[in-house]
Amino acid sequence: MSTRTAFLSILFLFAVATSQIVASAAEYKGPIKLLATKDGSTLYSLNMDAKEIAVVDLEKAEVVRSFPIPATPNDMCLSEDEKTVYVGYGDYQGKIGAFNIADGTLINEAVVGHTPCGLCVAPDQKTLYACLRFEAKLAKISLPDLKVEATYPALHEPCDAVLTRDGKSYFVANFLPLDHSDGANVAAEITCLDTETGETKNIRLPNGSSSMHHITLSADGKYVYTTAILARYQLPTTQVERGWMNTNGFSVIDAEKREFVNTVLLDDVDSGAANPWPIVVTPDNKTICVGIAGTHEICFVDSDKTHEKLAGLPKNAEEAKEKGLSNAVTADQVPQLLAFLVGLKQRVKLYSRTLKAKAPRSLAVVGKKVYAGMYFTDNIVVVDLDARRPKAKEFVKLGPEPELEPARRGELAWNDATLCFQNWQSCASCHPDARSDALNWDLLNDGMGNPKNAKAMLFSIDVPPAMWHGVRVNAEKAIRTGFQFIMFSNVPEATCVDVEEYIKSLKPLPSPHLVDGQLSEKALRGKAIFENEKYACSECHSGEFFTDQQMHDVGTRADFDHRDDFDTPTLREVWRTPPYLHDGRYVDLRDVFLDGMHGDVKGAVDELTEEEVDDLVEYILSL
User: Fold this and answer.
1) What is the C-alpha to C-alpha distance for residues 127 and 514, in angstroms, rounded to an integer?
2) Prediction pTM value
């Protein structure tokens, strides 16, 4: 072999090895849920990106085995005897599978609906409850056959749930509000299903509540806690200090009365606790533990003292006056008070120069040790609450340290509140999953006093311009000005490029309105209406993305608007992002046509019957 040939062979082998290293870098784990066994010996980690469950031996502090899940998992729960783990996986036509925890074999599976999550097994072990996130339904499923026996209505993206010990109440976190976002009060709600009667009750959180990621039950079963952002969306976005735009906390629900108690903030006066995600309570009921995903921390809250403080407050100013406490803090003021938990909480940082741990999206407690699954760094960290000064330590690596590709770095940046001045918010605070938080925001890029609905980022780079009034020439420009004028920070150009790659990587979810992945007969009739020149829908909503990328006056100007014309939005995945129009005035897409007469400027929409409107809406919601 000649020297040149040998050199080329070595070069080829190096190139192959390098390509393999790059490929392996994309094999992320992405832990989204931790479950500990009752005896405290084992921790199960549901790894979304790897599509697996990793089994962690807590004594050995190592992953002893793992087994695959057939599709992208959303949630899991254990049977009472801990021999079976139930996993919800997939999106459209999502399934629940029962797996033998001993060897990972699939015992049974069944299609239940779109994106099953919020899994809870009833005390009798004969029933499993689940949320069907993108169908806005709750499902009662028989065991062991996994047959859907009944469904019940939820509100907007039910994403997590908890079942009371007696099995009589199934509390569900609806991720986003379902309100007219041009109204005076817009808030996410908790749906409580009475499992005996099948009746549901919605428990409203304070105005501005959104991104309700997780829900849990206190150790004594008396309270339900849920994390959420508390947005100050009715203020112009002139600053972020002192939670001017977004604050972050958890809400307390009386489990027996099924009533809202209060919302308390986790932020400090000069340091936001952005994007609270998982929440659990220690077995002794003394500590409420909240993973702060945006700032890579865990916040530990004294449960007894917090409830004692809440119980001692007069309800409102009128009651305070009656009791001679006219200057006292009142219960209805608590969601506004950044200092309410001073002395009652401790924030522990999880990320440092020596500990690479970002985005705690799952928590589990064994005794006084709190374990956190770190989504972007693929490891589990532990904090010992018995320590004199609790500090985070790496407990176990779930796989090789991930080398983040550009889109993954962009996703991290999108969710990273440490890129914001004083850590008050991340891009995901207003655009969770790079979609919309269902709130109206008064951004300053087109003048003050004209709030508009947050837009989804899906396909935003493909369909310039950006913003409802097209004030940014494209999404690339909007990303950079967003960091500067909404996050009030300067980030490296490389970070903006990474965010672009993340936005480009977004894929639409299949619509729950499809039938076997295809348009229904009703939607096909609506498609014919949509494409009929008489109604002119496709004149503006044209092409692959159903937009001509032009500004149009379609008669939707409202009292606060500064101009008549608006950018034509894409209709792809519009089923996922109510409310509708630039100011979110309609929750139901039917009302856009029946009440708003949308399209009558160019077409004869006023001639459509209600049945034809239903067909048209079905088609649009199927895109």
Assistant:
1) 28
2) 0.94
